[in-house]
């Protein structure tokens, strides 16, 4: 079962309770972003049925087929994204949302062996801040708001406003300030984030409210539920904007590249920059072109930066701790959709001294016929593809890159030398992308071992469209990976022999 | 025998108490003067009135009356003469093609460099843009380090890997040296943030130009600095030309000391080292007590923007020579020294000769320094570990001195790259 983050209140974020609600069933549509204050209609008093219906749905839930909250269920649900958009908008996510809320909120506990990526990041930040007083957090909504994705939840209360700083929406300014503080010797963690839609934990609250308020209106009671909490965003719904994450990073990219990455080199070691830039990267769902780009290739291009991209909770914890302890600038590319996903973690991972090495990839699944490399969310798809392929007799080795710069060329090459075929998977644009680099690395170092040309799966070479069907076509799917592997496997005759 | 020499011999017999002002001057960061200074005269405070009053925005301006000492004035003279000489020598080196790429010269603006330094300690931080040779010198950098860095030699402060725009000396509180216009302002606010975070009681002087004064990131930095009360002093070196664009063509409001809006500001005669010192002392105290403050230094550069700019296409030669005659900072100090009879004209000439010799020797030493070793190409990318990714095969072809990989087995067996440290 998922270890949900301990909710501080039934309503996400202190602000929303203070701001009041607005009436109207139109506002109940999932994913509707909060309207500015002057456009909200006046609030009405809650109906008498409100508390009873709420309690009813709070404790009862429809049971889904799978055990929701386990990694398998999470994987299955990710696999169903976009497959069938008809009617799936409301049904699917709600089915997923409701079960979580029906349990009584538990205190956070490490007895359970599962952890969401969000918890992993939160605990990593917490432990590193506690271990080193020079570590501080800076970003939009990281403090009082508890973090736009609740990654920094509870940290303001624990460490105070001197170490958890809410910034104005001025990325270039506060990124430069973070880099300057790192010059002096502090260890800033700068979060990139713009606007605020909730992560998945709190959205289950909304789901419940929606369901019972719908029931309440059926019963003829007036409903005054507002769905206009800023943090509200059920996962994978088409509507609603997510964060600009690293899209906002490019506003500040001058400081990341010119002030941070290059400083140790051009000062010949006089000034080092122990800073971490973190935030969600890549596509969410339905957030369109300006909010869906994967910046892995942009940052991994630059010498002087370390670029990490975790997949599981273990990755998230270990790599974030390593990043914070690292004396060089680190770009930490998270994934919004993975935040709520739960993974099993061992006791070693839960230990506060746990740390993963930077520059080492992980072999998530051993295989012998083909190597599939991926990072972040695509690892999930690659694992699913490997599962599909194993039923067809193809044994795929899945490598979770974890670190894009330095890239673990040794692991990739060793794997290709074993399997002789390579498929690289990434979410970003194909040209000059991570897959292009992996392909070249393998050609440079293991050319004789390749039995087939390297296959490269990437996002479509177009700005991300909004329409759900086009969006699905623009992002790699499990089928694409399966097809690429098959192409790599059945094409066993070297090209030259055909001439 | 000049009258001062007699006084000197007299002072030597006077008790050591008279040496105290020298120590005090040294502690304030001002170089003690040469032996020709009279030590008993240096015990006296000299009061000088600044040439123009301070203009203020949202604060009370400091007094126009500046207290200084003979030692300090002689120190200013020597330091500014050294800076002037260094910049002219850099000009000659550039024309001799020993310096490549960019070279932005500071001559004319020396008063800002020495004035800022006179008001602070080495624990305070200074950060500036690319016109950084003289500020580096003021912060305790040596001539050899500057010339060697300009020429890309090993003895340079950045081992020749930075160049003219990237001089650094963190131990002395000098953070560069930045090529991106305006970037140093948020960085400087970050330094001040760290000073406040660590409760050091020190300040940061962030220097930028009139060309950078319209940058958006400045206003973002002002906002955060004012919100969080950061101990930062924002020094706008207004030399009236952003590269080739005069300030009236670039800024709708060229009163840069007012551009901070809610951030108080002072306009200072940037050619008067004492006025600069007064303003900076005032600003340091303000920053520690309240928060950020802007100091606009009304200054001038004699050279063009950089060595590729003759400096005469957008301004007249008359203007340049006019400023040189009426407002030159070194001449101002020379007149002050002479009028207060701290030293004679001949002694000042002597100082200038010494400085010239220093600069020539430094150039000779810098020229003797070799170019960096080719292996330095790959060092310092990261603090630990290698940092360069795609070069193992290149290195074995081009630089056999670097650990090379003869076979694929060697390659596979190589030590792994940077590992996250505990």
TrEMBL record, chain A:
Keyword match Oxidoreductase: yes
Reactions catalysed: N(6)-[(R)-lipoyl]-L-lysyl-[protein] + pyruvate + H(+) = N(6)-[(R)-S(8)-acetyldihydrolipoyl]-L-lysyl-[protein] + CO2
Transketolase-like pyrimidine-binding domain boundaries: 115-341
EC number(s) per entry: 1.2.4.1
InterPro entries: PDHB_mito-type (IPR027110), THDP-binding (IPR029061), Transketo_C/PFOR_II (IPR009014), Transketolase-like_Pyr-bd (IPR005475), Transketolase_C (IPR033248)
SUPFAM superfamilies xrefs: Thiamin diphosphate-binding fold (THDP-binding), TK C-terminal domain-like
GO molecular function, one term: pyruvate dehydrogenase (acetyl-transferring) activity
Superkingdom assignment: Eukaryota
UniProt keywords, alphabetically: Oxidoreductase, Pyruvate, Thiamine pyrophosphate
Keyword Oxidoreductase (UniProt): yes
A Pfam cross-reference name: Transket_pyr
SMART domains per the UniProt record, alphabetical: Transket_pyr
Biological processes, Gene Ontology terms: pyruvate decarboxylation to acetyl-CoA
Family matches, as Gene3D superfamilies: 3.40.50.920, 3.40.50.970
Cofactor or coenzyme needed: thiamine diphosphate
Function: The pyruvate dehydrogenase complex catalyzes the overall conversion of pyruvate to acetyl-CoA and CO2.
NCBIfam families: PRK09212.1 (NF006667)
Protein name: Pyruvate dehydrogenase E1 component subunit beta
Annotated source species: Colocasia esculenta (Wild taro)
Automatic annotation (TrEMBL), chain B:
BP GO annotations: pyruvate decarboxylation to acetyl-CoA
Enzymatic reactions: N(6)-[(R)-lipoyl]-L-lysyl-[protein] + pyruvate + H(+) = N(6)-[(R)-S(8)-acetyldihydrolipoyl]-L-lysyl-[protein] + CO2
Cofactor: thiamine diphosphate
UniProt keyword list: Oxidoreductase, Pyruvate, Thiamine pyrophosphate
Chain spans, region Disordered: 306-326
Pfam families in UniProt: E1_dh (PF00676)
Superkingdom, taxonomy of origin: Eukaryota
Family annotation (InterPro entries): DH_E1 (IPR001017), PDH_E1_Alpha_Subunit (IPR050642), Pyrv_DH_E1_asu_subgrp-y (IPR017597), THDP-binding (IPR029061)
Compositionally biased residues, Basic and acidic residues: 315-326
TM segment ranges: none
Positions of the Dehydrogenase E1 component domain: 78-374
The EC number(s) this enzyme carries: 1.2.4.1
Enzyme category, top tier: oxidoreductase
A GO MF label: pyruvate dehydrogenase (acetyl-transferring) activity
Known role: The pyruvate dehydrogenase complex catalyzes the overall conversion of pyruvate to acetyl-CoA and CO(2). It contains multiple copies of three enzymatic components: pyruvate dehydrogenase (E1), dihydrolipoamide acetyltransferase (E2) and lipoamide dehydrogenase (E3).
NCBIfam families: PDH_E1_alph_y
PANTHER family linked to this entry: PYRUVATE DEHYDROGENASE E1 COMPONENT SUBUNIT ALPHA, PYRUVATE DEHYDROGENASE E1 COMPONENT, ALPHA SUBUNIT BACTERIAL AND ORGANELLAR
Subunit annotation: Tetramer of 2 alpha and 2 beta subunits.
Protein name from the UniProt record: Pyruvate dehydrogenase E1 component subunit alpha
Protein source organism: Colocasia esculenta
Taxon lineage: Eukaryota, Viridiplantae, Streptophyta, Embryophyta, Tracheophyta
